[in-house]
Amino acid sequence: MQVSDSSSRILAGLLEARTGQQLTMSRRWRIETALSSLLKERGIGTLDELITILVMGREPALSNMVVEALLNNETYFFRDRGPFDLLAKHALPQLRQSRERTKRISIWSAGCSTGQEAYSLAMLFASKPDLWTGWTVDILGTDVSTDVIDRARGGTYTQFEVQRGLGINEMVRWFEESGEGWRANEQLRRMVRFQVHNILEASPHPGQFDIILCRNVLLYFSAEKRLAAFDRLTRSLAEDGRLMLGAGETVIGSTSLLEADQEARGLYKFVEGGKPATNPVRTALGA
């Protein structure tokens, strides 16, 4: 199945319009792999035929299916481990001290895919009951994909998915075997909630988050969209909160409000006096 330049451009434009993510030339090799199953399922012979259907608007639901297929949903439990150790050793102890009066912590996992990052965060708290008993821990996972959010809400994974990032003892401790696979236990599910949300839209939460994880999401944004995303993230982050990005991402060139936390490299905090007003502003994609 060949992918013409015109088809690639139309599909890339559709993905960016719906999600803000770019399908750069270096990533367009994914098109054939990502859409082959959809074409077979729908009895569509070629990508050019698919493009014709999309352009003519005959099947509106099909464009949603195409976008879902083109999204990169790579994730696994405790991905890269190091960032979670950083949270456990630095960010969470600081928050436990500063939130002692309210005993409430709110965390946003932006671009959570099928939910492994959010459940990994829940495990950090659940594994330390002596520290967090009596606290309200609210972990919100969001993604632009309806399909992956539905899977995250179910909290059920194949044995391969569960063992990807978890040891046997962790798997048995936090998951229960069911007819459909391995499901996160009730303790974890109580701490985590999920919703469909585009990071370029207004905050998914009426308050502010103590920690925001937005890892390996902004890599796929244009410079303009990345600026808009950082505007949303900074308005959603508590004044003494921490932002975590992916290993290949940085705030440099995208926002002057945040700086690296010198005591915990890999986390970002507000520069002194850098917290913006909380009312969201309109971006190129609207509020």
From TrEMBL:
Record's keyword terms, sorted: Methyltransferase, Transferase
Highest taxon of source: Bacteria
GO MF term set: S-adenosylmethionine-dependent methyltransferase activity
Residue stretches making up the CheR-type methyltransferase domain: 1-273
GO biological-process terms attached to the record: methylation
Any one Pfam family match given in the protein's UniProt record, by short name: CheR
Protein name: Protein-glutamate O-methyltransferase CheR
Organism field: Sphingomonas piscis
